[in-house]
Amino acid sequence: MPSATVGQTPSLSTYLKSLKHNDIETSIELFISLLKRRQIKNSRPCAIATISLLLRVVGEARTRDAQQLIERIRAVGRRLVAAQPREMAVGNIVRRVLENVREVAERDQDAADGGSEGSTSIPSTPIRGETMRRPAFPTKFSEFSPLHGAATIPQDMHARAPLATSGDSSPAFGGTMEAALQRPPLVSSNTSYAGQGPAASSLFSILQHPQGRSPYATPPTGTQSPALKASPFKGDEGQTSASEKLDIKAEVITSIQDLQKELEEVDDEISEFAQDHIHNNEVILTHTSSQTVQRFLMKAASKKRKFTVFHAEAYPNDHLETHATIVNGGGATAEDADERWKPLTSMGITVILIPDSAVFALMSRINKVILAPHTVLANGSLIAAAGASTIAQAAKTHRVPVVVLSGVFKLSPVYPFDTDELIEYGDPGKVVPFQDGEFMDKVDVVNPVYDFVDAELIDLYITNLGGHAPSYLYRIVADHYRVEDIDLSGKAEGGAVKAG
Amino acid sequence: MSEPTKAPEAAQLAEEAKLSPAELKKRAKAEKQARRAAQKGEPGATGVPVPATNGTHEAPKPPKQSGPQEQKAQGSQQKGPPQQKQKQGVQEGKHERTGSIQQPLPTRGMPALAGPVKEVQRKDKKQVELFSHLYTQSRRQDIAGASKNVHPSVVALGFQMSSYEICGSSARCVAMLVAFKEVVQTYVTPSEVSLARDLTSRHLSPQIDFLRSCRPISESMGNAIRWLKKTIVEIDPRTPEQEAKDYLCDEIDRFVRERITVTDQAIAASASALIKDGSVVLTYAKSSIVEKTILQAHANGTRFRVMAVDSRPLFEGKSLATSLMHAGLQVEYLPFSGIAYAVKEATLVLLGAHSMLSNGRLQSRVGTAALAMQAHKADIPVIVCCESVKFSGKVALDSIVLNEVAPSEELLLPKATVSHAPALDRKDDDDEDRQVRSLHDWRDIPGLQILNLMYDVTPAEYIRMVICEYGNVPPSSVPVVHRLANEGIM
Questions:
Q1: CA separation for the pair A295, A300 (Å, rounded)
Q2: What Å distances lie between residue A424 and A46, A86, A289, B208, B311, CA to CA?
Q3: What does the angle CA A207 – CA A212 – CA A214 come to, to the nearest 5 degrees?
Q4: CATH code for A272-468?
Q5: CA of A311 vs chain B CAs: smallest distance (Å)
Q6: What is the CATH number of domain A12-117+249-258?
Q7: How far apart are alpha carbons A428 and A29 in whole angstroms?
Q8: How far is B335 from B351, CA to CA, in rounded Å?
Q9: Consecutive H or E run containing A98
Q10: What does UniProt give as the signal peptide span (chain A) (predicted)?
Q11: What count of CB pairs under 8 Å joins A to B?
């Protein structure tokens, strides 16, 4: 079937073409092999390929159930992330899609429930303890202790029993859930706190909210609560009409297409901010052949700003692309003429190519450093092409501001516990050709592809949402990802739901 | 009528000589235009008319003045004429005395003329403006234009230096002195002068100029030349010629031996004591003294390993790694981008120097400063091994002041046989001809420059210790050692 791609090096474009006529399993396998063989590299191509694949996965999913859809996406995502864990854009997109699905499902549940007083429906994320009722009170007492359950637990908590998550996202809730399993269900009307207005009247509930969802969202009375102990959500969904189920899939597809559009427009949105940051007579230092940075600078140049750019060539992994970008502009290999763009020099900007070793020497005359990352981590630090750490350190020494341009799709909810693991090591043949047999034999040649840059070295992040300090990124992470999706491993939800 | 006006014109030219070349260019253009207008207009008129009308001038002048003013009307601003009026006021006295039109001082009304000339110049400029002070002499490519007095061994040496066959401060210094020995031997004292006076100016200077035209001379070479000139001058004029020449050759030998060869051994012995068992020594590019130190430590039986960091375009680190590999050491080789990885494991950084500056800073191969910074941040001691012949009295605050800019072509990669970008069928070669160009066409691309720096300056706070033949000193002691060692030469 993929006859058109025979004879061409597998890459993003061939993969996207093949997606149209391959079946799903083949496509997934193809993508996994592309990732493993590093034929698809860098955040943006991986993100584009992942989202196209997930679009097909959702399109072909037979299920109408949001929960099952989530499971399917998680399963696929697990395989993709395992194929190349350091390509975090893949995982980011999977988590974004999951967030979209959950949000769509919640919205639909809201609509299905009709006019409950300010109630949010039970979401298809059963783990979200705080939605229907008062949030769980985390108790650390073990189940065997006589004190277990002695702490104040809202009486209607046990209805949510089977939906304990394991470990990762809400360990505290898990304990409560299991405890609640053992208690007899109580009629909701007996519940003490629920029912007297919004639960937010208790400061307690504010402290319990893991996702910062407004406590006003909890309903005053647990409408669906006690009767649905076993699998309240399944039952609930059974009640909603079939037409709303259909909507879930369609709406998810729409939201994925929106995400695709966001990926395409990322560069344009980031360049909108170019005018605020680049002015006349500035001297800018940049690094590698990043398309985002080039477009950003071109936007400033198109506003008739005259500045100078020192461009470090990022030898040995990216220098050829950097030279090509400086000389020819971008998209030289794109078939669509619209995607090509002129080089910066054609807009009257002086571009000076320098080897990476000259960065410290010139830093005293640089006004601004603009970097593009490979991945941005949740605490504001980033993984960028090798050499970025030296540049950022030198900039800090000379008090030069460092600006990082990245789309939100590069922002990963992962916290860098072990920075060494996030660095990928590349082909030593790029440093010393393998023809130097004796040298390669006796000397250990190391070629790190990425560098870890700490959050303190960065002054500003510009994303498609605007400019932020590194300390704000955790908020964006919270807005775009759900806590329960951070760990894509299967043991979390699937077991609990099916048990019910 | 023209003569009396020429004199004050000349005086005016003299006082305006200190104006910038751009303004002089403007004025030259205005002169040419005025001359053209003058040929059309009154025959008696002199060189440059006033570009703006001045009410105090006589009647015949205004039409001539308005002529060229119309020509410049396209670009000149409104504020031009009033400003020139002000400037004219200064010249008022002269005007009335001679009764002729004087050249005005260049004013803001003129730039429009010079505009196009400047634009074209900027487009063709391939020199980085930041380093314009370093582009004074382009490197010699062949022997054409060399003085006939240049000795063949110096010619050979010059080309060896410019092609980086002999690269490195100490190596160049020694090679130069060895070549100068031959130069001294071929010298013949002419009849009325003494060797002491004549050798330097007539025979040695062309050699030095030739070497400088091949590649800017290093600090060690500079110190050696100063020492040599001093030694020559101190020769007793009564010494017979051959004896004097032999004396000079012996002195050169002694200099090389004392200040470079033996010094290197002493520094190697001292620095190798810093390398302990289990050390991971990080080094950058190729320094002969660091190589000697490492080999000495290895010969002492210390078990350690070496990480060699390298950079474009010279790849000196690779030759260091190769020679250490042949000696049986365990070597790890990294590109410049691997510095962040390297400082995670290194325990000691050993650096060589091009020169030590008097404010404690180290001038060395470009990239050294970045490595020293990363090592300093990782709390790794940075040790510099440097002979006193490289110590300098100069100071620098950044890497721009004292540096060497190498030809940009050295940064270009060898031309690939297969073009990098795949050729697409371009049926629609619409808009700007988008032929895929490579970096080799950089000269044709306006606005694109390539900068190939040779040195950078490392701040003193990143350097823990400097090892020279006078001992292990902190970077702040460099001026003291310089006075001690190179004293009397400066």
A1: 9
A2: 16, 7, 19, 50, 20
A3: 95
A4: 3.40.50.10470
A5: 9
A6: 1.20.120.420
A7: 28
A8: 17
A9: helix A88-113
A10: none
A11: 192
Residue B144, token pair as written in the block: 């054409």
In sequence order, which ranges of A272-368 are alpha helices (DSSP H)? 274-277, 291-302, 319-328, 359-362
As given in the structure block, the two tokens for residue A14 are 């061939």
Q: How many residues does chain A have?
A: 500
A222/A225 Cα distance (integer angstroms): 5
From CA A219, how far away is CA A217, in angstroms rounded? 6
Contact B318 A432 (CB under 8 A): yes
Query: Residue A364 and residue B398: Cβ atoms within 8 Å?
Result: yes
A124/A98 Cα distance (integer angstroms): 11
Q: Is B455 helix (H, G, I), strand (E, B) or coil?
A: strand
> Using CA atoms, how far apart are residues B357 and B369, in angstroms rounded to an integer?
14
How are beta strands A443-445 and A382-385 bridged, if at all? unpaired
Residues in B closer than 8 angstroms to A446, CB to CB, are 332-334, 338, 341
- A357 vs B311, B434, B437: nearest CB: B311
Six-digit token string for A54: 């997930």
Partners of residue B420 in chain A, C-beta under 8 Å = 320, 324
Q: What is the pLDDT of residues A407-445, one digit of tens each?
A: 999 999 988 888 888 898 989 999 998 888 889 989 999
- Which residues in chain A are closer than 8 Å to B451, comparing Cβ atoms? 310, 352-354, 358
Q: Within its chain, how far is the Cα of A271 from the centroid?
A: 21
Backbone phi, psi, residue A260, to 5°: -60, -45
- The candidate with the shortest Cα–Cα distance to B99, out of B52, B41, B59, B39, is B59
Which of B 345-374 lie inside 8 A of A, CB atoms? 365-367, 369-370, 373-374
Q: pLDDT tens digit string along B165-200?
A: 999 899 999 999 999 999 999 888 888 888 888 888
3-state secondary structure of A286: strand
Q: Which two tokens stand for residue B177?
A: 């002195």
Span(s) in chain A for CATH 3.40.50.10470? 272-468
Instruction: Find chain B residues with C-beta within 8 A of A322's C-beta.
Output: none
Pairing outcome for strands A450-453 and A382-385: antiparallel
Longest dimension (CA), chain B: 98
DSSP letter (8 states) at residue A352: E
A394: chain B residues, CB-CB within 8 Å: 370, 373
Alpha helices in B346-451 (DSSP H): 368-377
CA B389 to CA B176: how far, in whole Å?
14
Q: Give SS3 for A449.
A: coil
Residue type at position A383: I
- As annotated, the residues of chain A forming the CATH 1.20.120.420 domain(s) are 12-117+249-258
Q: How many CA atoms lie within 13 A of B18 on its CB side?
A: 1
**Structure confidence at residue B360 as a pLDDT band (50, 70, 90):** very high
Pairing outcome for strands A460-463 and A402-405: parallel
User: Is the Cβ of B337 closer than 8 Å to some Cβ of chain A?
Assistant: yes
Interface pTM (ipTM) of the complex?
0.72
- A442 → chain B, closest CA residue: B325
Cut 0.80: pTM above it: no
Residue spans of alpha helices (H) in B41-151: 61-71, 80-98, 111-124
Query: Confidence band (pLDDT; 50, 70, 90) for A109?
Result: confident
